[in-house]
Write a structure and sequence with these properties.
alpha+beta
Length: 466
């Protein structure tokens, strides 16, 4: 089965609110020549990010299927292969690992040199990117709104940072801890991009996913860390809904409690802290990655942040690690309405909650082949994802569309409440589905979809997208 742009559920880079408003499209790319130039010489950290017998990273090609990891096509030390997605992924992961090692002294996401597995060409027209607890996965975009998700280098850094967070603070992927999980990934993305472009805080554009949207989409990027809520305003996408202050905090059940929305609040705090630290130190320590980035990294990895740390607790952790920059960091959090409050980081250092076992297939979630066709209406609402644009559709099973008979059979077989009751924990940047199948309602994560449910959501979003 193939999953397309408005019909695929994973821990995704594209936020759900965008996925739905859209029909997606994202294209942002940091100048590849600049990236290549930065990486032209061998990195002194490269020899350290290794596991005996395994390369530091390997890129796989899924061949437009959803089978992971796919065929290995390029590993660390090998030359370019001429496939844009493969070579962009290689450049991006090499730069991301170099950032961790050279700027923060960390060797791979686990701190012990774990090899990184990446997959490109995932799915058909798949407009998302995600970390699934094992590897980084990137779609080619829908060709309408979004370009390749390997194209903007900061998408690579963002997804690797989800692995970093999983192996350090283990921030659960919901509500304020989930928004912090997304925020940390955007922080790493900004540090990576500015480091490659040799920019100081006041020189960076502070956009995440710049170039991800295709021409014709009214968007500068997916998120603006300096001015949350201003990244795009397009008839298909709607207007960027991110808040930049606690006064505008969004309470919602979408996207695991608005993790891609409310991350705008700590994002703005980080931007303000980076500017202040950069202004105070005109030397190398005033760069975003060596200044505010170091403070945030130390807070994440120093045992002060745990799985359920909220904004106030994270702010307190950054103050504790800010040293001479404590005043600048405190002012940054104050500017976004967050009052630091230290809380015991219960479970800090856990491996995170984005893993989990695969849902049982063929059990109560799947009906027998002889089940009578269902009647009524099937509704699908997709949120989450790296882009965060929601998608929503409903289909009346009395419709005479030639694809509806297949949908009727699927609706008769699936048991959405059984699937929802046995699904694994949320994973970063995966899609989330609110399903109503002829009156039976449940919220199901992309990683929990059975084959029948995956086909059902694909058909509904195809047939009734609005």
């Amino acid at each position: 089965m193939t999953l397309g742009p408005a019909r695929d559920p994973r821990h995704c880079f594209v936020p759900p609110y965008l996925q739905r408003a859209l029909g997606y499209d994202a294209t942002l790319a940091v100048d590849e020549a600049l990236r290549a130039a930065r990486l032209a010489g061998p990195s002194p950290a490269a020899a350290l990010i290794t596991t005996p017998g395994l390369p530091a990273w390997t890129v796989h090609d899924a061949g437009s299927t959803t089978t992971l990891p796919g065929r290995p096509v390029r590993s660390a030390g090998a030359p370019a292969v001429g496939d844009a997605a493969v070579d962009e992924a290689a450049t991006g992961i090499a730069a991301s690992l170099a950032l961790l090692a050279e700027a923060w002294g960390r060797y791979s996401y686990d701190g012990a040199g774990a090899p990184v597995s990446l997959t490109v060409h995932y799915g058909r027209d798949y407009a998302n990117a995600f970390w699934d607890g094992t590897q980084l996965v990137f779609g080619d975009g829908d060709g309408v709104v979004f370009d390749r998700f390997t194209k903007p280098v900061d998408v690579l850094g963002h997804e690797l940072a989800h692995a970093l967070t999983e192996h350090t603070a283990g921030l659960v992927y919901a509500d304020q801890p989930g928004a912090l999980n997304e925020h940390v990934s955007d922080v790493v993305a900004a540090c990576l991009k500015q480091r490659l472009l040799d920019q100081r805080p006041d020189q960076g554009d502070w956009l995440v996913g710049e170039g991800l949207f295709l021409p014709g989409v009214q968007a500068r990027g997916l998120r603006d860390m300096a001015r949350p809520g201003s990244a795009y305003d397009d008839p298909r996408l709607g207007r960027d809904p991110q808040p930049g202050h606690m006064d505008d905090f969004i309470v919602t059940t979408d996207d695991h409690g608005g993790v891609h929305l409310n991350s705008g609040i700590p994002n703005r705090a980080f931007h303000l802290a980076a500017l202040a630290i950069g202004a105070a130190d005109p030397g190398p320590r005033g760069t975003t990655w060596a200044g505010a980035g170091q403070v945030w990294y130390d807070a994440l990895t120093g045992g002060l942040v745990g799985p359920r740390t909220d904004f106030a607790g994270f702010a307190a952790a950054t103050l504790a690690t800010a040293g001479q920059h404590a005043e600048a960091v405190a002012a940054a959090w104050d500017a976004v309405g967050v009052e630091p409050r230290a809380v015991a980081p219960t479970g800090a250092g856990a491996q995170g909650t984005s893993g989990g076992t695969e849902p049982d297939e063929g059990g109560p979630a799947e009906g027998g082949p002889g089940a009578p066709p269902a009647t009524g209406v099937v509704r699908v609402r997709r949120t989450g994802g790296f882009v965060g644009v929601p998608a929503e559709a409903d289909v009346d099973l009395a419709s005479d569309d030639p694809r509806v008979p297949e949908l009727r059979g699927l609706a008769a077989r699936v048991d959405v409440t059984a699937v929802a009751a046995h699904q694994p924990a949320p994973q970063p940047d995966r899609f989330v589905y609110d399903l109503d199948v002829c009156g039976e309602s449940a919220q199901v994560g992309e990683q929990a979809l059975t084959p029948d449910l995956a086909r059902l959501v694909e058909l509904v979003l195809d047939l009734g997208h609005r």
